[in-house]
Amino acid sequence: MQVYTHPACLAHDTGPEHVERPARLSTVLRALETAHPDIDWQPAPRATRGQLLRVHDEALLATVLETAPHVLISLDPDTILSPGSGEAALRAAGAGVAAVDAVLEGRTQRAFCAVRPPGHHATASAAMGFCLFNNIAVAARHALDKHGLERVVVADFDVHHGNGTQAIFAQEPQLRFASSHQWPLYPGSGAHNQTGIGNIANAPLPEGAGSAAFRAAWQTELLPFLDAFKPQLVLISAGFDGHQRDPLANLQLDTNDYAWITRELVVIANRHCGGRVVSMLEGGYDLTALAECSVAHVDSLRW
Ligand SMILES: [Zn+2]
Description:
Blueprint: E1 2-5, H1 22-35, E2 40-43, H2 49-53, H3 58-66, E3 73-76, E4 79-81, H4 85-104, E5 110-113, H5 135-145, E6 152-156, H6 163-169, E7 175-182, E8 200-205, H7 211-227, E9 233-238, H8 255-272, E10 277-281, H9 287-301
Parallel strand pairs: 1-2, 1-5, 5-10, 6-7, 6-9, 7-8, 9-10
Antiparallel strand pairs: 3-4
Helix pairs in contact: 1-9, 4-5, 7-8, 8-9
């Protein structure tokens, strides 16, 4: 079990009032170090321009990497660029690429990327919703294009819909994307009838939904959809903001739900692809819940 991270991810400064703050990552790292002293820690390399350009256009790379602000600037009402943000974004995306390489080259069976900024809202051309580059999409494209895989799945259980990931892969027959999320909620996409070319499955959950609704959606709909594709690699957008303690949304999930869904995804990976899973941290804004859920998630990845 490898965990990828980099100190640069702590230097993405979003300002004193922002929920997507460095303390999120330092809390996760401390919790994992305590709970799993034998983790194989790996430094996240920078993603290369070529790896990013498989997903993003030149203009977004220029905005994130060449603006070089001396103060904090807002790319949208939620999304901040600081002096350290370009480097953090490169390391966050690079973590996923390195983890895919390690898993597909047989150096580890499973990997978790403890990074920020998160990624699943970023589209091909726009940073949004705390996300600069779409880390999971860059990792998926790397698996398809560099390693020649033909069937990759992305499971996204963040409480917000992964609009960027969906948009990037909506016409991609070699990737299936499955998401559960509170709906309606930011960013507004993720309705049940958004199915791409038949490669997208969305399970919107109403405000207040809890464990039973969450597990039913995955068990009856999303997990069979991913399983039927016989994936060669399982990728996870692991957001823990559906936890009942989280301040940004109103699902009532608890830590056991995240342990459960992770084990279910591991079962699919074990059945089809030698257990190969790469998971990337997305949201989660209550520090206590985030620490607990990250540990439970990694527990299940090691299961
Ligand atoms: Zn989220």
